[in-house]
Structures are given as structure tokens and as C-alpha cells.
Amino acid sequence: MTQSYEILHTMKPLLLILHVLSALLKLLFFVFLSPQIRAHFIQSWSRRLLKILKIKVVIHGDQTFIDSQQGFLVVSNHISWLDIHVINTMKPVVFVAKANVANWPIFGWIAKMIGTIFVKREKLSDLKRVIQEIKSQLQARQPVCIFPEGTSSDGRQLLEFRSNLFEAVAHSELKIVPIALSYQENQKYSDRTAFIGDMGLIDSLKLIMQSDQIVAHIEVCAPQLAQGSRQETADQARQAILRTSSFGDYN
User: Which residues, 6+ apart, have CB-to-CB distance to 165 below 8 Å?
Assistant: First the structure.
């Protein structure tokens, strides 16, 4: 039993490397694929990645609207770089990420190739560009996901939302789907996946690969109409996430 466990953990890095290499090869032809095939590739790649890392995904709530073929804004709390892949297993979406993610080795290039929108939050001109890109994606019936906390946390609390990017849907009839992410290990809260402070991607991967008991929970809230100012819309989405069981102690 011990020997099998050690072999399994030795295989994880190898399987991960092979998985990433296969993605790099496939992405060379990504621009020639239809949007439907691209979405299928992204979802399958994320599911395979989490399977290699031995991370199980559990979805709570009604997915009916999530599965619809229309543009909507997903609003999520942010804990880890894994969040993107966890959400993609449920629904392939376009993500808005910090500009520095584009500089990550390998994963940054993959993020670029699959259409991630990178934002420099400190630059007003760049925020305007990103807001317009989000609008364009939504109008093209492509769901977009934002992490309005602006940074990641350990998952125990929900930080205040920055309202800037909500301008893309403010005073419109577009729908917002708030979701709450949390990670457990052995059926208890775990910060093993938390990507905070000065932690590097490799260090995070090593920590995650030490466990086979991580479960990622996605709690899907009811869709909301994005009618009102950007601040009102942000507050409404944040309150919906706070009401989930993940943040029941912080209401």
C-alpha cells in the first residue's frame, strides 16, 4: 500500500508535464478551431488537469442558466490559480486576470492562447480597454468571469469587491451569475490551494500534489439582472456570495 502511494505521487509530476506538453502542441492549431471545439478542448484540458492533481469538483445549485448558450458575467471569489480550471470544468469561459499572469512560465502562454483578458488595474486607460473587451465577448454570447476582490485570499473571508469591471454590465439587461468557491481536504476547510503572499506557482503545485483528498466546491447562485450602477451591481453580487454556505459565518 505504501509503495503504491509513493509510486502514485512520483507519477503526478510526470503526468502533469506530459499534460502541459500536449496542451502546448494542441494550442499551435487553436486559432484554426471553431469556438465550440475550443470550448470543448478547454473544458477537457481542465478536467484532465484536476484529475492528475487528484482534485474532485462538486457543483451545488442550479446549473440550468450556466448551461445556456448566451453571454453572462460570472462573478467569483478568488483563492487560487486553480480557480480558473475548476470553473472551466463547469463552463468554459473567458477570464479576466492580472497582467502579470501573462508572464508565468508556460501557464501564462497557455492563458494567452485560450483568450484570457489581461488587465492592469492601476491604469485607467487599460481598465477602459478591458471593459470594452468584456462587452464585446458578452455581446458575442461568450460568458466572461471576473474576480472582483482584485487579489486572492485564503478562502475564509470574502474581500470587498472592486466595482470597476462591473461597468461592462451596469445599466444593462445582461445577467450575472455569482459563484462561491471553496476547497476542502478530508471534508474540512483547507488552505492548501490558497495562492497568496509571495508564493510561486511551482511552490503551490508542490503543495497541492502532496494531497489526494482535495475537493473543490462551486456554489452557483441564482442569476441576477445587472440593472443599476456598477457599485450597486457589485454589492448585489457580493451579498449573494456571502449568503452561500461557504461564507455563512460572515453574513
Answer: 96, 119, 127, 130, 131, 134, 146, 148
CA distance 173 to 223: 12
Which residues contact residue 230 at a Cβ distance below 8 angstroms, ignoring those fewer than 6 apart? 163, 164, 166, 167, 170
**β partners of residue 176:** 73, 224
- Over residues 38-94, the pLDDT tens digits come to 999 999 999 999 999 999 999 999 999 999 889 999 999 999 999 999 999 999 999
SS3 72: coil
The angle formed by the CA atoms of residues 107, 109 and 115, to the nearest 5 degrees, is 105
**110 grid coordinates:** 497557455
User: Residue written as cell 473544458?
Assistant: 43
Do residues 244 and 180 touch, judged by C-beta distance below 8 A? yes
Neighbours of 209 (CB within 10 A): 15
Determine which helix (DSSP H) or strand (DSSP E) holds 177, and give its type and residue range: strand 175-185
Arch. (CATH architecture) of 2-250: 3-Layer(aba) Sandwich (3.40)
What does the angle CA 52 – CA 56 – CA 60 come to, to the nearest 5 degrees?
Answer: 150
Report which of 136, 158, 159, 134 is spatially closest to residue 145, judged by C-alpha positions: 134
pTM of model > 0.70: yes
Contact 42, 92 (CB under 8 A): yes
Which tens digits make up the pLDDT trace of 84-131?
999 999 999 999 998 888 888 888 888 888 899 999 877 878 899 999
3-state helix, strand, coil split of the chain in percent (to 5) is: 45, 15, 35
